[in-house]
Amino acid sequence: SDDQTDWGSIWIGSVVCFLTATQFSIYFSSLWPYLLQLDDTSTENFFGVIAAVYSLGQAVSSPIFGFWSNRIKQTKMPTIVGISLAAFGNVLYIMLPLNIITPKYMMMVSRAVMGTGGGIIALLRTSAVTASTAKDRARAISLNTGAFSLGLTLGPALQIFFTPLSYPGIQLFGNIRLNLYTGPAISGLVANAICLALLHFKYRDSTVGLHKVAKMENESHERFFALPKFDWIAAAVCIFTRFAQMFVVTNLETIGSPLSMTMFAWDRETSVFYNSLMHGAFSIVGFIIYSANTIFNFGPKMNHRLSCVIGLLIIIAFHLLTYPWPFLTSKIKYQEESWMNGTEPVGCRRTFEWCEYTPQINVYVYMISYSLMVSTAFALISVSMNTVYSVIIGPRNQGTMQGILIFIGSCARLTGPIVVASLFSHSGPGIPWIIEIVISLIGVVLWLVFYGRLVPLKMGESLTAGDRYRNKHGMVYKF
């Protein structure tokens, strides 16, 4: 029926969202070790660029996919094209050992192509709105957002399944191999095939959520039925929170391998294994929170504004716990000058002078606090901030405003790795940690200062006599 939420399409869109997000993040644990394997002269700065180009591609393609979708009045075809681009990026990544062009530059191109395909996320989130009735909209958005966020956190953990393959791994054909580095791209191709099959055979565009809006706008007294304008200040607080969330989490994922290899003297395979293990615990915590929210529908019972503040405070607490405080006594080990007995040199690069005066943070504190604290904070913010944001902006503005939210998240993922990788190379984790504490603290202050404005958009039918609101025709008074 046209009056019922199209849960089939919403579930398919959420699955595609999950698999797209997983592809973005599954590379984080092995990207840096693989770059060193292909070219041992690569720097952390160049790695930051490789990590950022995915988000650059996504930031550029998101509005293009949105414009195309609006023109043809559907999301199915643009989404299929985006998935196909991601598949092509995965093929390029698998072909890195063929040396068609310098491997590190081909790695950068493959990630940029995958990111361009990732621009479909805004379309999938918008489709959750257009396919749901007003009654089901919060749950539909929560399902879509949870799927994306879970994919983002689960991706790096999946790397652990490829670790036993080691390197160079199993020969498939020619110089193409399945190993702990190419495993993510090969699994990505399988995910792309699943997405394309679901979209082609099962997915349909639905406009259930727009039906009543369109009917109201055709009334003769349009001035009195037009939707109120939402509070831009309240929306901006949520948008900044998304920037802070993605800036912090992407930075931690990006420099996770360089940090652990430098700070804890792990070799490449050990780094891939333990970083995957941490992300596994991270994703389990996220899965519990997202599943509980979807199954038990905690939304109406939660104070989402307070949950966002708590999430940001947990991020600050993590950084304070893992900061290289001067009173810590453990020293960072420098790499040996030459390879001994054919083994890989481990520890801090000789060019990193900061290792001399920066204490080593405790490996167990780092692993446990990252797995439990950052995961809880990420899930809390994802669920609560998106719920607050969706009710602030109202049903009519979801398409454009969800696109802005995705764009800002992409900007955070674009700028964060470049800035933080450079600062890490120059001065270690201290300054990046301070930056992330300050950004999170600004978020806490904004939620507390504008707490009273971060409320649902009041629709005309919910107003009482004497209330007033502004819409596109000017000020409207309720009598």
Q: How would you explain this protein's 3D organization?
A:
Its main location: membrane. The chain crosses the membrane at residues 7-26, 46-68, 80-102, 108-128, 140-161, 181-201, 232-252, 272-292, 304-325, 367-392, 404-424, 430-450. One of its GO terms (cellular component) is lysosomal membrane. GO terms for molecular function: transmembrane transporter activity. This is Membrane transporter. With 479 residues, the chain is mainly alpha-helical. It is built from 17 helices and four strands. The protein has helices at residues 7-25, 28-38, 44-72, 76-94, 103-117, 121-130, 137-158, 183-201, 208-217, 222-225, 232-254, 256-263, 268-296, 304-321, 363-393, 398-427, 430-449; strands at 170-173, 176-178, 468-471, 474-477. Helix 4 packs antiparallel against helix 5 (103-117), helix 11 packs antiparallel against helix 17 and helix 14 runs antiparallel to helix 17. It is globular, with a radius of gyration of 23 Å. The model is unreliable at 213-220 (pLDDT under 50).
Helix-strand layout with pairing:
Blueprint: H1 7-25, H2 28-38, H3 44-72, H4 76-94, H5 103-117, H6 121-130, H7 137-158, E1 170-173, E2 176-178, H8 183-201, H9 208-217, H10 222-225, H11 232-254, H12 256-263, H13 268-296, H14 304-321, H15 363-393, H16 398-427, H17 430-449, E3 468-471, E4 474-477
Antiparallel strand pairs: 1-2, 3-4
Q: Which features characterize this protein?
A:
two-stranded antiparallel ribbon; globular; 4 strands; 479 residues; 17 helices; 3% strand; mainly alpha; two-stranded antiparallel sheet
